[in-house]
Amino acid sequence: MPKIDPETQALYDEINGMIEKFKEDQKAKADCTLADKCGDMSDVTKIRFSSKKILKGHINKVNSVHFAGDSRHCVTGSLDGKLIIWDTWTANKVQIIPLRSAWVMTVAFSPSGNFVACGGMDNACTVYDVNNRDASGVAKMVRELVGYEGFLSSCRFLDDSHLITGSGDMKICHWDLEKGVKTMDFNGHAGDIAGLSLSPDMQTYITGSVDKTAKLWDVREQGHKQMFFGHDMDVSSVCYHPNGYGFASCSEDQTARLYDLRSDQQIGLYAPPQKNTGFTSCALSTSGRYLMCGGIEGMVHSWDTMKQKHTGTLSGHENRITCISLCPNGMCLASTSWDQQVRLWL
């Protein structure tokens, strides 16, 4: 690493000192802990998901997966330069969409199931209409959203006409897809944005970043509402709690965490039994009782969020898990990996 000059080091020390003061102030305000309040709750059973289907079709690392609002169809993106839309009930391919750039890092399905979006190292977000075909017979590209100075790391649809993206240039962009223009473009973090999760009511969203923080935003405004600290390394993924009052995050610092928006602080800390893995992606069950994280060693770990106990692992992948996505009805978990497989856990 290049040597840091004294002035920059002094600024780092000042910022870290402020963060530690914030944490101390939060701890002073916390009149109880989640473990204390949930100590008399009954334990949940070990996670009962098992790998029922393996979706085979990609021939390179699969980097992202996301479910449509119907809980049946999902889209995956791979370094083989393809998006594949799957029918998870039958394990059949519905559509294969060839991409201009193979370096896809994120995919998103619109809640209606009418559009998919993807982006990555091409510094652009491309939107396809899955119900209309072009002259070659594949899904019609309806928008190519450019103007990023870094890779696209995350994107999510608010509806068929509006999209939010986070990118490696530290920016958050809001797009009007009908007009093809940005409605907002602003610096969101002090480092690459790594993850984005929308609230159940689609009015707010959470972002996670390599600056080790997570932030709460209102879809109508540019300034963040709250900032959350805790992780010692990049925040690789965030997931809104189903009740809309909290969110989970995970990191390669070998922990996952639960934050409460109303108390403005971390309330849960989750670690694997053996400190041998970092986490790349997280998801919460529809009840919010189970937290699941995909690990770099190829297993999905699960915890009881209330009692902060490890409730098992899902094994099957042979390489790093890149992304996990729970379908909206909570009945199926999809996971993608560098082993080129997409697994469905039921």
UniProtKB/TrEMBL annotation:
* InterPro entries membership: G-protein_beta_1-5 (IPR016346), WD40/YVTN_repeat-like_dom_sf (IPR015943), WD40_G-protein_beta-like (IPR001632), WD40_PAC1 (IPR020472), WD40_repeat_dom_sf (IPR036322), WD40_rpt (IPR001680)
Give the superkingdom in one word. Answer: Eukaryota
Pfam families registered for this protein in UniProt: WD40_Gbeta (PF25391)
Key words of the record: Repeat, Transducer, WD repeat
Q: Where is the signal peptide?
A: none
List the SUPFAM superfamilies.
Answer: WD40 repeat-like
Which CDD domains did the record assign? WD40
Q: GO cellular-component terms in the record?
A: cytoplasm; heterotrimeric G-protein complex; rhabdomere
Tell me the GO BP annotations in alphabetical order.
negative regulation of smoothened signaling pathway; phospholipase C-activating opsin-mediated signaling pathway
Which family would the database say this protein is a member of?
Belongs to the WD repeat G protein beta family.
Q: What is this protein called?
A: GL20952
The gene for this chain is: Dper\GL20952
